[in-house]
Write a structure and sequence with these properties.
By secondary structure, the chain is an alpha/beta fold. The strands form 6 sheets. Strands 1, 2, 3, 4, 5, 6 and 19 form a 7-stranded mixed sheet that branches. Strands 8-15-9-10-11 form a 5-stranded parallel sheet. The chain is globular.
């Protein structure tokens, strides 16, 4: 297949970019690993559920119409799927309207949508290689004149004793269950960690019928006052979440952290404790909260695998772009969380700018920044907001002190915190790569994508991007066929 622009990722940034480029005459192919466009933020219920609305899964869950649900299946965790509370008549519904506009626009745009296409590599030139379907045993190639990376982000996971127990899930994982399956992970939950994602997860679970025993946030909300101007535009949204916590009687434990999860075979309780100003646990402040679910998250990280494999420069742990959302590799644009975690609204603005820029450049003309002046203003404002949140929502500075030596850190290779500490203290490892070589931490299925921040924190070194030839595991048979086909094409 050949196309003008291959957009990788069908979240808000990818959808906005694809629509903007297609509206200006480009042939656009949109590839995404999910069954349907939308990404995590605009994730819709699975088609088999025949649900018309996202319901309790969305940040304004209680403000949206009640979903139409099918009869429950035997394996679902509740005898009857939970329903959100009735919609609030005065509440905003902008997220659902955003999805409707994007969905309708996509249907009329002529964009080729390739769902369940798991992109594993992009060659210079550009050839996009993707594994097909849930089995991921066959690969297809899309040849494009340019590539736009809207690969999104993934959750940062920090370990603590008991974090591998069944019943402990990531905050984003709990949200994905609500959005995609209209299911809940348990009956009584604690939502913990740090970051703005915890608020919609806690209120969404509560709206779906889960008893949320506590929202445990390690940040100090007083720090938000220092960033008042940057956060002012989001005050109504924050007030809405605060009202949701009160309405569902969710106890907020600010400046607290989870220090241990308990259970024999499955989660039965968590211990939380207060933090002092330095980020250490206050002695004598521990309390135990019974629960069967812990949804925990410590922020987000940018997906940069494809950008790194193409040689794109990074700014910290995100892809560096210019005012047009261009990377420093000609023909490659990037937008959304891949260029820095900032939320769906910022991703939409960046995607719109990137799509317009790509359309102009591929037609051989210099784009006029005035064409996207409104989006650029939104981008600047929302980027300031994102930076303010980054400054407030940071994991406790001394979180490694609560990780016992027998706590598994790298789940793929079953490497403990003690092994990582031994590599540093006894064998002299001073960087993430050396720790990996000495312990195998990060050599498993996820290739360090999940455990690298934790290993770096325990080792006392900087988390650094790791350039990989492939963005996901690839069957050897696929690589063999790629080599055979390339050899045959080059034969005289």
């Amino acid at each position: 297949m050949r196309t003008d622009l291959a957009v990788i990722g069908a979240g808000p940034a990818g959808l906005a970019a694809a629509l903007a480029a297609a509206a200006r005459g480009l042939r656009v192919t949109l590839l995404d690993a999910a069954e349907a466009p939308g990404g995590q933020f605009l994730r819709q219920p699975a088609a088999a559920l025949a649900a018309r609305y996202p319901g309790a899964s969305h940040p304004q869950a209680s403000h949206l119409p009640e979903p139409h649900l099918p009869e429950p299946r035997p394996h679902e965790p509740h005898p009857k799927p939970p329903h959100p509370k009735p919609p609030h008549p005065k509440a905003p519904r902008h997220q659902w309207r955003t999805w409707e506009r994007l969905r309708d626009g996509l249907a009329a745009s002529g964009v080729t949508v390739l769902a369940e296409h798991h992109v594993w590599a992009v060659e210079r030139g550009f050839t996009v290689h993707a594994l097909l379907g849930p089995e991921q045993e066959e690969s297809v190639a899309v040849r494009a004149a340019a590539v736009l990376l809207a690969t999104g982000g993934y959750e940062k996971v920090l370990p603590f004793p008991g974090w591998t127990l069944p019943g402990v899930v990531t905050a984003g994982g709990a949200q994905a269950m609500l959005k995609g399956a209209l299911a809940v992970p348990g009956r009584r939950a604690v939502v913990a960690g740090t970051g703005p994602l915890l608020l919609p997860v806690a209120t969404g679970l509560a709206a779906a019928g889960v008893e949320v025993a506590a929202l445990v946030e390690s940040a100090d909300f007083k720090a938000l006052l220092r960033h008042g101007p940057a956060l002012a535009a989001k005050l109504p949204e924050g007030a809405g979440y605060a009202a949701g916590l009160l309405r569902h009687r969710i106890r907020l434990l600010a400046r607290h952290t989870v220090v241990r999860a308990h259970g024999a075979g499955t989660l039965t309780a968590v211990t939380v404790a207060a933090l002092d100003p330095a980020g250490r646990v206050r002695p004598g402040s521990a309390r135990r909260i019974p629960c069967d679910t812990l949804a925990v998250g410590h922020g987000m990280l940018a997906h940069t695998d494809l950008a790194e494999s193409l040689g794109c420069r990074l700014a910290g742990l995100a892809v560096h772009v210019d005012d047009e959302q261009r990377t420093d590799v000609p023909g490659v644009w990037a937008a959304g969380e891949a260029t820095g975690i900032g939320g769906a609204a910022l991703a939409l603005a960046e995607g719109h700018i990137a799509g317009r820029s790509a359309a102009a450049r591929l037609r051989g003309t210099a784009p006029d920044p005035g064409d996207w002046a409104g989006a650029a203003r939104s981008r600047s404002r929302l980027a300031r907001f994102a930076r303010a949140l980054d400054a407030v929502y940071t994991p406790p500075a001394h979180w490694p002190e609560q990780v016992t030596d027998d706590t598994v850190v790298c789940r793929c290779e079953e490497i403990t915190a003690g092994a990582v500490r031994a590599a540093v203290g006894e064998l002299g490892a001073g960087d993430l790569r050396t720790v990996k070589l000495l312990t195998r931490a990060g050599m498993g299925w996820c290739q360090g994508r999940m455990c690298a921040p934790a290993v770096a924190g325990l080792a006392g070194c900087e988390a650094a991007p790791s350039r990989r030839p492939f963005a996901r595991p690839v069957p050897l048979g696929v690589l063999a066929r790629q080599h055979r086909d390339a050899t045959e094409e080059g034969a005289p």
